[in-house]
Amino acid sequence: MSLPVEMPCALGRPEQHSVIRAVPEDFVVDEVLGFDPSGDGEHIYLLLRKVGCNTAWVAEELARLAGLRHFDVGYAGRKDRHAVTTQWFSLWLPGQQETDWQTPSIEGVDIVGVTKHSRKLRRGMHQGNRFRIRLPDVVRTDDLCRRIEAIGRHGVPNYFGEQRFGRCGANLNKAELLLAGGLRKDRKRDLYLSAARSYLFNLALAGHVESGDWSAPDACGWLPGVVRGSGEPERVSGFDSWYEGLERLGVKAMRRPLAITPADWSAEWINGGVVLSFELPSGSYATSVVRELVHYVSGRSSDRRGAWRGETDG
């Protein structure tokens, strides 16, 4: 099975092309935690600056260095490896006194801050992410200025980024097998279920984009599954077995906004390109903003600090 992951743009097909992540410094992400760690508790909080490092790989390295089980290390969101990212990690170290965390001995990682808190960091606990993205070889045109203004006013469709679906949509192929009753013990089960739900949401949102009603105030779609309470999720035709499989597996349905407007939105023309600065809430994708401006390709390079695993920029 080959499923298209490219969805329609709200502003029409962009005129220009560019590269994202040609170098890590072109894609800078700073996590916005949204609360202040208390400074006391059983969990060490580390604010790390990572260059070319996969979030899960860094968490594994921290667990190894601290002699912890992998699930005793927490983080709020996965960040793209091919970027410069600053994010928080937590390590459960009950009863341990202050430790020298200034030299973690992890390639590509620097410690920015250390504190403590009473709770483990869990997925989605952060408020959002602040982005600074450089798009090289982009010319200032009337079309691009119109797009920049429209995004600031109306936002963009809140699509899940293509990285959610794995290389060449591989996670969707696995999801179809899982929903058909296979892969019962696969350790990436949750990843595949998430990919399936995200894809169904994107397809439904694409229908709203084509009909022009995606940006209505407070308009929401569904991450499909079992509905608890009121509401009747719309269904995309041709995927009945996916919806039935998600319900059979007891996955809880969730609402998600159809549109997202970047906060503190700005565009600056620098050295033959444009630099975008903005903030998004957790779970939203910077690439869903970029795709409304330019056709982009990724300049990802390969290295050994964690294989690409469908990292998000949420």
Morphology call: globular
CATH superfamily of the domain at 30-127: TruD, catalytic domain
* Strand element count: 14
Classify the secondary structure makeup into a structural class.
Answer: alpha+beta
Q: H/E order of the elements?
A: EEEHEEEEHEHHEHEEEEHE
Quaternary form? single chain
Assigned CATH architecture of the domain at 30-127: 2-Layer Sandwich
CATH topology of the domain at 30-127: Pseudouridine synthase
Separation of the first and last Cα atoms: 27 Å
Helix content: 10-25%
Mean pLDDT: 90
Provide the low-confidence segments as ranges.
Answer: 306-311
Descriptive account of the structure:
- There is one protein chain.
- With 314 residues, the protein is of the alpha+beta class.
- Among the domains are: 30-127, Pseudouridine synthase, CATH 3.30.2350; 162-257, Pseudouridine synthase (2-Layer Sandwich), CATH 3.30.2340.10.
- The chain contains 6 helices and 14 strands.
- Strands 2, 3, 4, 5, 6, 7, 12 and 13 form an 8-stranded mixed β-sheet that branches. A two-stranded parallel ribbon has the order 1-14.
- Strand 12 and strand 13 (273-281) form a beta hairpin.
- Helix 3 crosses helix 4.
- The longest helix has 23 residues, at 189-211.
- It is globular, with a radius of gyration of 20 Å.
- The two termini are 27 Å apart.
